[in-house]
Amino acid sequence: MPHKTLGVDSGGRPGQARPIVAACAKDGKQDRRFTKLKYLKPLNANRDQATIRMVSPEIAHALSAMQPGTHGVLIYDSPENKRDVLFRHLSCGEHDSKLVYVCSEEKPEQIRDEMETFGIDVSGLGGKERLTVANYDEVYIGKDGRVDIPGIIDGFAKQAWGCQERGFRSFRASAEMSCFFRHGKVVELVEYEKALGKKFYFPGMGMCAYNVVEMQSAGCMDILMPLLRAHGLVILTGPKGDVILQSERIRPRQVEQAMQIRI
Fold this sequence. Notes:
The protein is of the alpha/beta class. The strands form two sheets. Strands 5-4-6-7-3-8-9 form a seven-stranded mixed sheet, sandwiched between helices. Helices cover about 35% and strands about 20% of the residues.
């Protein structure tokens, strides 16, 4: 049976410019090469500092322009950077889509509180059954410790197709993948990501989030490149700013430069 369906300072301070590696070319095409560092003002420079969101304009555009079938990956170095991107991904569909967030690094109640602070109407969306915040053991790893890869994918697919039948514009999911490392399910993790493919066969949009600090501590940096290449869209957010790439031509040196790591 399938399961229930459904750091490091980045260099920017509230109200100040933030360094970002610009990876977007003109006409909406993404440049796969690194360019010189640019300094961009945060989108929310006039907001209260406690609720400022530091997601870059390039990332905001990529998330808002995302198309059904997109299988994206986020590599981050702090909970703040993770929430910035994953919450923005969901907020792009707040008015017309079904939203799912799968927790494993943080608890569901903590994520709900952070979403409210971010500006997502958690109670309103939840009451309309348009937002689900689930723990990883409801989706990825069962109480018996099993990872049912076909069941997980089928669960997401059914939700995505069901959204279309209910008249929603899209299905957006954000997922923390820490549980696979903490439960020693790395082999299953790689198999799962590869089974999903670079593009979903169902009309959903997903962002899989990986904590690079946790991966380093677990001694799992050898699987980072295979994980990135299992996705279509790649977002890196770390000490050198934000980078957006397509996975086909991504190189280890680019990741090392952006995240200040060794692969």
